[in-house]
């Protein structure tokens, strides 16, 4: 049964306490959350209690690569306390994808971190933006990265940003489903350089096809994000309703 989560950056500016934001997420029918930086605002025990009280799963957390490298033990300890065992690198800058050599170095770096996390019971994923889809010797840099990383590294495919980067998210899902346990459901305007995210259904992403294929391939978690919303409470509600409709599920 597919389930829906929200990337908590979507509601970054809500003035409620973090546990109260989690309650609002549950009230809108989401099954889980993907943490971002605000999770550190509240003691882990308060976050854990809010998750339990609202029947929310801690699906994953976006953690910058530099933070994982410099503060590995603290990150592992905190997310272990929250019962969140999937950590996601939100992006690496475009210098990591500008050449065959750069991609190979990036793959080695991520594989090493993935192996280290695996030894501690965590999964590591990489989340794409748009610059990972440049052409390198007839190959997408993103596809090279998938092929050159070890199995300790998975991927969270952002279907909107892949579309904006010129890629076909449906083809990527079909080819690499075994490496993609999470799908970021976002919408975008391909020709607007200032709008990476728009409300679901307002952009150019073929959401219906991407979600249908991902669901048919057995991907269980679909994570909604709109990182540029200025009406975040309304976006939370609308995103949940739209994602439930796409998946053919009904929120409790």
Walkthrough of the structure:
This protein is α/β, with parallel strands linked by helices. Helix content is 41%, strand content 17%. The protein has 10 helices and 10 strands. The protein has helices at 18-27, 44-53, 65-70, 72-81, 100-118, 141-148, 159-164, 169-176, 207-216, 232-247; strands spanning 3-7, 32-35, 57-62, 86-89, 123-127, 135-136, 139-140, 153-158, 182-185, 221-224. The strands form 2 sheets. An 8-stranded parallel β-barrel has the order 1-2-3-4-5-8-9-10, surrounded by 5 helices. A two-stranded antiparallel sheet has the order 6-7. β2, α2 and β3 form a beta-alpha-beta unit. α1 (18-27) runs parallel beside α2 (44-53), α5 (100-118) packs across α6 (141-148) and α8 (169-176) runs parallel beside α9. The longest helix has 19 residues, at 100-118. The mean pLDDT is 96.
Number of helices: 10
Q: What low-confidence regions span 5 or more consecutive residues with pLDDT below 50?
A: none
Shape, principal axes of CA atoms: globular
How helical, in percent, are the residues? 40-55%
Written as H for each helix and E for each strand, in order along the chain, the element string is: EHEHEHHEHEEEHEHHEHEH
Mean pLDDT, rounded to whole units? 96
Helix/strand layout:
Layout: E1 3-7, H1 18-27, E2 32-35, H2 44-53, E3 57-62, H3 65-70, H4 72-81, E4 86-89, H5 100-118, E5 123-127, E6 135-136, E7 139-140, H6 141-148, E8 153-158, H7 159-164, H8 169-176, E9 182-185, H9 207-216, E10 221-224, H10 232-247
Helix pairs in contact: 1-2, 5-6, 8-9
